[in-house]
Write a structure and sequence with these properties.
Length: about 90
């Protein structure tokens, strides 16, 4: 007798973040991942020095979300310190 449904065990490697349906929304500019922890923060609450502030203004005006992501990644400490959630 042929089975209508067959089961296979597979392994996949995602190429981007995956939404698992927790019901929470994370905007690209409101979180960063560092040491396997997701830090959710409000960027307006981060305490930046003048150099960091100027660099953030530059990348924000570049209209390239990758530049903003890299800024958060390369300057994570002020944003980790003001994080509301760590997952």
């Amino acid at each position: 007798m042929n089975n209508f449904i067959e089961n296979y065990q597979i392994t996949i490697t995602p190429l981007c973040p995956i939404h698992l349906g927790s019901g929470e929304d994370f905007l690209p500019t409101n979180y960063l991942i560092d040491n396997n922890l997701l830090y959710e923060f409000d960027p307006s609450e981060a305490v930046l020095n003048d150099a960091e502030r100027q660099k953030l203004l530059l990348v924000a005006n570049s209209n390239d979300i990758r530049d903003v992501y890299l800024f958060f990644k390369n300057n994570s400490l002020p944003f980790r310190l003001c994080a509301q959630n760590k997952i």
